[in-house]
Each structure stands twice: as structure tokens, then as C-alpha cells.
Write a structure and sequence with these properties.
single chain, alpha+beta, five-stranded mixed sheet, 21% helix, 35% strand, binds sulfanyl-(tricuprio-$l^{4}-sulfanyl)copper, binds dinuclear copper ion
């Protein structure tokens, strides 16, 4: 033990005096030798240079990708394509404690359907909150197609804060998309069903089955969707699909595609031709054009019908008030994408080789002049397709989604069947370039590509299948995101990234500098409600409270101990642990897990999280910290002891594992004094520099000062016991004193390194 301490001490002093320097020797192998050895072409090396982010450097953009059936969100950097985080949204995720601590269980419980916990989500379309049509990096919304739900993720801490269940839909697809100032988040239904939650025979499909769009009101101050201020518009039983909000001249309107406007119901087992035959008969489907601002007024005026306790503007009202129109669109369309200037909506039909550019101005003129070609069976006026079009372009087979470039009039459309990206000019209506991608592209994404000011530079192709692209890992393959350089006239393929977490449908990317995530919570924080936790605990105030058979533990974690360390309860007790992480240092997360239970917390600095278990089986249950947080991480442990019913305590004094003498104490005391010299030198180094100009260093210094305070307290205890010649307690407390010193030194060295790397100046000698 002493030798380890000696070595640690040597390491500390070496670091503090700059004796350890990085090896300066660099591989003598030349670039052309590496290229030869690895079989790389010049083009490969160029692509590598365009995507490589050297150690210590960061990415320019952050992408947020849907995690498909995982119900999660994937965050990765561009251009490096390095995965940074999975954000747990609709499904439990153990590492983040999501669905394991009581606080996040409440968030997941908001997403219950018919009282049932839903343990998966089919996420499709993430959307970042906008201010004046620009991504503002504050919030993110994502939908669940299977169980019609919408989630709110706070980009302050990348945690899911809210899930709302759509009150009238049975499935959805056309969300999440936001208005230019994030007043509303849209969610459009997918498969028609009765809006009332009841059985209706399929024979009544035309009369009773319905589609809809829901406008979820987002309250920016609260950071939550406000269901009481949200409303829906009833739509015909055409399977609604993707949506988008207007902007600029088209602000106030939303656009929603549909497929199967034939209203065909299959039934192959009854000898009827299947859905796919009956749903692709007509040459066109319907684009829905909805004046949501008018809808918001009608909602305020109470011109709604309550369905399942939710206000719905009926089709009849919507038609009468002139807020709902249909326009034919190419067969089986998928994306509806409004151009950055808000003048056009681009729509492609999967079963048509053209992309169609609709002119908002032309559509509004038709509406103004009541120039309709007819009405659908529900009385909704239909605009003429040709008269609505600005232009039409032969883009390729199976065009799906469109994203925009920073260059004016330039758009990119994914071509599913041809496995290509088509770059084209939507003002002039001409194709500019085509790039073959590996396989079956679905969505595609440019940087901030659906905002009013797309940033260009890169495009990601979200391919549906990876087939033979990567090392085989069994019949279930990863998905393939391909990074493409769009800065020049010609698109250049740069990189393939396998994504192994469900089928990611859509992704959004934002300039990294727009995100301002926090690095710690205010002390004792409930991260799911964003308030001080009512059951937080301050250092030194840890306690165990019993009320009948309810036992509440108010505990803390800090390097390297959990307080309390021993919790004794009785068989049948219900035990709640409220654990507060007292750390303020960056990335000092502790975990908390109890053997034989689902108790599993992730405690980021400042966070308070809770878990409740029933002590139903007498026994001994070790608990420990699950994050390797410090040199004494393994010692960050404790015991939950469950005494059997009727157990009588026997007063047996246990023997110590090891007996310490004055020699042990003196040795430890000497080590501690030497350690203090090292700490003093680090402190002198820091305070001689303008460390106060560096916020991260200021907080490190605060943290180290706190540890040194603990060190001083324990030093006093050790020396008091030594004065009484109680060498057992004196040695143990001296050991604890050293623990605090090591932690302080560790933090001090982090601060010193930071100052060295950020060019701090000497301010005093
Ligand atoms: Cu897979 Cu947007 Cu749901 Cu297209 S969606 S490809
Ligand atoms: Cu805390 Cu390991």
C-alpha cells in the first residue's frame, strides 16, 4: 500500500513540475508509404483529410438522428461522424438511469397508452426549435410513429423532459416540424382510424375513419408542450404523411402529404387485392394545405368539437372558414419541403420520376379567385395541379425527400430506386449533378437544411440498407449514413458511417457553436422537472429516516464515497434512496446500483435522483458506484442489510480487519505532509497566473478548495486521535485526509493543464 502511495506521489510531483512530457518521436513512415501499405488512393486520402478531426479538436456541426425502433436519439459530429451520445427518449436506457430512477420514470409514464407502459418507440423525425426560422439550438422534438407520441428534449442537458400522447390518433408520421418561432409542433396522422377511441367496422371506413393533424402548442418559457392550448384539424381518411410549416410569405400555413387517397382497404385473406394494389391506382394523391393561424383563432373562439377531451376543428368548419384546401400531387409522395425563402413547396412522388415545385403565390391566387377544379368527397376545395406549379424536374426514379443548400435555388433530392442524390436548381428547373450513393437512400440532410439559412458544406445520405458495406455482423445489419461534400459544383462522397441502433429515418444538423449545453447542474437538481429537488441533501446532512415501514435515505456521493455507507432495514420495508451528487467538477458522474435490484442511478454533477425498492428478501446487498470516477472508485461502496422479520440485535463487537500502530500513523502522516508540498506548488503555479479569466479553471479551483477543506477537517481528527494515542483511528483518519489531498491534487493538475493549454499568462512572480 505504501509503495503505491509513494508512486502516486511521485507521479503527482512529476506532473506538477512538468517532468512528464509527451513523446516527441513521430512515426517516420511517409504518407505515400502509408497509402501503399493500406491501399489508399489520393482521393481516399483527400476524403480522410476532409473528415479527420485531430485529437483534442471538435466537429463543426452536430447531427441529431432518429434512432428508429430504439426509441432514442443519436448525436454525432460532422465531418468526423463520431457518435457522441444516445439520448434516451421513449425507451428505458440504463446508462443514463432513464426509466430506472423515479424522476425519469415519471417522464416515461407520461407516454403510457391506455394505462400501459410502452417500452419501445419508432422515432422518425427530429426537429430543432427555431427563432425567426433559424435553428436556435434550445430544444428538440421527436415523434413516435407507432404509438402516436411527441417528445421534448432539452438541449441544455440533452435530456428528455416530456412525452405527450396524441389523444385522437392511432399512428402518426408527419411530425415533428416546427413553426418559424416554435409556437407549434405539428404531428400528422398516418393510418386512418376512428378519432373516437372505439371499434368501428372497416365497412364504415369512408364515413367514420379519419386522418388529422395536431398542432402542439409549445410554451418556450416552461420548456414544455401545453396540451391545453393545443388543437387538431380533422382530415379525410387519406393516409397523411410528412408535413412542413410555411415560412416568410407562406408563414401561417402548413403542408401535409398523403398517400392512398383512393381510400382503399385491403383484406388479402378475404380474397381482396392487397393494400398496395388499391393504394396506387390514381396518378395523384392530395397535398393538404392548412391555414394554422386561422385554426388557432378558431380554437380560441371555441369553434371546435371535443373528441377524447381534445379540441378538434371539424372538416366542415375548416372548409366553411376557408382554412383547408387540397392540391393533387405526384403519386405516393413522401416529403413536403418548404424552400428557405418560403416561396415554394417541393414534393416528390415515390412512383413518379419528377419532383414538383409548387408556387405558394400561385396557390394563394387560386384560393383568392376561388379557382377550384372541384371538391373531394368531404367537400374540401381542390386546386388545379398545373396552375399551382412553378416547375417540374425529372430527378430520377423514386424521388423522396428534399433539402436545401446555402447556394440560392439549389436543392438536393434523395432518389430511392436509383440510389442517387440529385442536385438541382428549383428556380430554373434543371438538374445540376447526380451522385450515386451506396444503396437505397431515404432521407437526406444538409447542414441546417430546412431552416431559412441553410449552411451548405455537407450532406448526409441516410441509406435504408447497408447490405455488404461493412464487416458482417450477422443477418441484422447496421444502417449506413454517407457523408457527402457539397461545397463544390460536384458532390463528393467522403465517408460511410455504420449506425447500429434501429432504423434512423431523418436527422437534423446544427452548427455546433449554437449549442450551449451546461456542464453541471445547480446543486441538488431534479433534472426532469428542472427545479431544485425537494429531497436534495447537503454535505454533512445525510440521514436515514424511518416512518412505519417506509425508510428514506437522504444520501450523497463525492469522490470516493457514498454516504451513508451502511443502511440497515427490516424485511418488508419500502426503501427510497434520494442520492445527490455533490461534485461540481466537469464529468464527475457517479453511479449508484444495488445488488439484486433494478436500482441504477446516473448522478451527473449536481443531480439528485431517487430510486425506491421493496426489501422483500432478508440478506446482504452491496451497493456501489458504477462509474470509474477516481483511483478509489472500487472503494466507493456500501451495504444494504435487510434483517429478517423478528430479528433481535446481538451486541457483538466485531474485530478490526487490521490493527494499526504508531509506526503506521507516522508513515501516513509523513506522506501527507509531502503530498501537501506538491499541492502547494500546484496552487502557487495556478494563482501566479490569470486563472480567474478561465471559467472552467475557476470552478476547478472551487472544487479543489472544497476538497482541501475536507482534508483539513480530517487532518484535525487524525491528529486529535494521535494525541490520545488512539493509533487505530488516527491512522484511518490520516488515510482519509490523504484521500482528500489526492482528489484536490488531481483537480489542481487538471486546472494547471487547462491553463497550460489555453495560454494563461503569469500575473505575479
Ligand atoms: Cu422513413 Cu421520413 Cu418516416 Cu422517409 S420517413 S424515407
Ligand atoms: Cu464514483 Cu466510482
Amino acid at each position: 500500500m505504501q509503495t503505491i502511495r509513494k508512486r502516486a506521489l511521485l507521479a503527482l510531483s512529476a506532473m506538477s513540475f512538468g517532468l512528464v512530457t509527451a513523446s516527441a518521436s513521430w512515426s517516420a513512415e511517409m504518407l505515400d508509404e502509408v497509402m501503399k501499405r493500406r491501399g489508399l488512393t489520393e482521393k481516399d486520402v483527400l476524403a480522410a483529410a476532409k473528415t479527420y478531426v485531430p485529437t483534442g479538436k471538435r466537429d463543426e456541426f452536430l447531427a441529431f438522428s432518429s434512432g428508429g425502433q430504439s426509441g432514442q436519439l443519436i448525436v454525432y459530429g460532422i465531418p468526423s461522424m463520431r457518435i457522441l451520445k444516445y439520448v434516451a427518449v421513449f425507451t428505458p436506457e440504463p446508462w443514463q438511469g432513464y426509466g430506472f430512477d423515479d424522476e425519469s420514470k415519471k417522464v416515461l409514464a407520461q407516454g403510457r397508452i391506455n394505462g400501459k407502459d410502452i417500452l419501445f418507440g419508432d422515432t422518425h423525425h427530429p426537429a430543432i426549435s427555431e427563432t425567426n426560422g433559424e435553428y436556435d439550438g434550445r430544444w428538440l422534438f421527436i415523434n413516435d410513429k407507432n404509438n402516436p407520441r411527441m417528445a421534448v428534449v432539452d438541449l441544455h442537458d440533452f435530456e428528455t423532459k416530456q412525452i405527450v400522447v396524441n389523444p385522437i390518433m392511432k399512428s402518426e408520421h408527419g411530425g415533428a416540424f416546427v413553426t418559424p418561432n416554435t409556437e407549434y409542433v405539428i404531428e400528422a396522422a398516418q393510418y386512418p382510424a376512428p378519432l373516437e377511441d372505439e371499434y368501428v367496422p372497416l365497412e364504415q371506413f369512408n364515413e367514420r375513419y379519419r386522418g388529422a393533424v395536431t398542432y402542439w402548442k409549445f410554451n418556450r418559457e416552461a420548456g414544455r408542450i401545453d396540451p391545453s392550448q393545443s388543437f387538431s384539424v380533422e382530415l379525410p381518411p387519406y393516409s397523411q404523411d410528412l408535413s412542413d410549416f410555411g415560412k416568410g410569405p407562406s408563414d401561417g400555413w402548413s403542408f401535409t402529404n398523403s398517400f392512398c387517397s383512393e381510400r382503399y382497404v385491403g383484406g388479402i385473406e378475404k380474397g381482396r387485392p392487397p393494400f398496395e394494389a388499391g393504394c396506387s391506382q390514381k396518378d395523384t394523391d392530395f397535398l393538404h394545405m392548412i391555414n394554422w393561424k386561422k385554426g388557432a383563432e378558431l380554437f380560441k373562439a371555441g369553434k371546435t368539437k371535443m373528441i377524447n377531451g381534445h379540441p378538434v376543428i371539424t372538416m366542415e368548419t375548416a372548409v366553411k372558414e376557408g382554412m383547408l384546401f387540397l392540391i393533387p400531387e405526384p403519386k405516393s409522395p413522401h416529403g413536403a419541403d418548404v424552400s428557405p425563402d418560403g416561396k415554394y413547396v417541393i414534393i416528390s412522388g415515390k412512383l413518379d420520376s419528377h419532383t414538383y415545385v409548387y408556387s405558394f403565390e400561385k396557390m394563394m391566387n387560386l384560393i383568392k379567385n376561388k379557382d377550384f377544379v372541384g371538391k373531394d368527397p368531404y367537400g374540401i376545395p381542390i386546386l388545379d395541379l398545373k396552375k399551382s406549379l412553378h416547375t417540374q424536374v425529372q430527378a430520377g426514379l423514386g424521388p423522396l425527400h428534399t433539402q436545401y443548400d446555402s447556394k440560392p435555388c439549389v436543392a438536393y433530392t434523395s432518389i430511392y430506386v436509383d440510389s442517387q442524390v440529385t442536385k438541382w436548381d428549383y428556380c430554373e428547373g434543371k438538374v445540376l449533378d447526380k451522385l450515386s450513393i451506396h444503396y437505397n437512400i431515404g432521407h437526406l440532410m444538409t447542414m441546417e437544411g430546412d431552416s431559412v439559412t441553410p449552411k451548405g458544406k455537407y450532406l448526409v445520405s441516410l441509406n435504408k440498407l447497408a447490405i455488404d458495406r461493412f464487416n458482417p455482423v450477422g443477418p441484422l445489419h447496421p444502417q449506413n449514413h454517407q457523408l457527402i461534400d457539397i461545397s463544390g459544383d460536384k458532390m463528393e462522397l467522403l465517408y460511410d458511417m455504420p449506425l447500429p441502433l434501429g432504423e434512423p429515418h431523418y436527422a437534423v444538423a446544427i452548427s455546433a457553436d449554437k449549442l450551449k449545453p451546461i456542464i453541471r447542474y445547480k446543486s441538488g437538481w431534479d433534472t426532469r422537472t428542472d427545479k431544485r429537488h425537494p429531497n436534495r441533501t447537503r454535505p454533512g446532512k445525510e440521514k436515514v429516516v424511518r416512518d412505519g415501514n417506509k425508510v428514506t435515505v437522504f444520501g450523497t456521493t463525492i469522490r470516493s464515497h457514498i454516504t451513508p455507507e451502511i443502511v440497515e432495514v427490516k424485511e418488508g420495508d419500502v426503501v427510497t434512496f434520494h442520492m445527490t451528487n455533490l461534485e461540481r467538477a466537469q464529468d464527475q458522474t457517479h453511479g449508484f446500483a444495488i445488488s439484486g435490484t433494478n436500482a441504477n442511478l446516473s448522478l451527473e454533477p449536481g443531480k439528485t435522483a431517487s430510486v425506491t425498492i421493496t426489501a422483500d428478501k432478508p440478506g446482504v446487498y452491496p451497493y456501489y458506484c458504477t462509474e470509474f470516477c477516481s483511483a478509489l472508485h472500487l472503494e466507493m461502496q456500501g451495504y444494504l442489510l435487510v434483517q429478517p422479520k423478528g430479528y433481535k440485535e446481538v451486541a457483538v463487537k466485531g474485530a478490526e480487519g487490521t490493527i494499526y500502530t504508531q509506526t503506521d500513523y507516522d508513515k501516513q502522516h509523513k506522506t501527507n505532509l509531502e503530498t501537501q508540498e506538491v499541492i502547494d506548488s500546484v496552487v502557487a503555479y495556478i494563482v501566479a497566473r490569470n486563472y480567474q479569466d478561465f471559467a472552467p479553471v475557476v470552478s476547478l479551483v472551487e472544487d479543489a478548495t472544497e476538497q482541501l477543506g475536507f482534508a483539513a477537517d480530517t487532518r484535525k481528527k487524525a491528529e486529535d486521535f494521535a494525541a490520545k494515542q488512539d493509533w487505530q483511528n488516527a491512522t484511518l483518519w490520516a488515510g482519509q485526509w490523504w484521500q482528500y489531498q489526492v482528489k484536490a491534487a488531481d483537480i489542481g493538475l487538471r486546472a494547471k493543464t487547462y491553463l497550460d493549454q489555453h495560454g494563461a499568462k503569469v500575473v505575479k512572480e
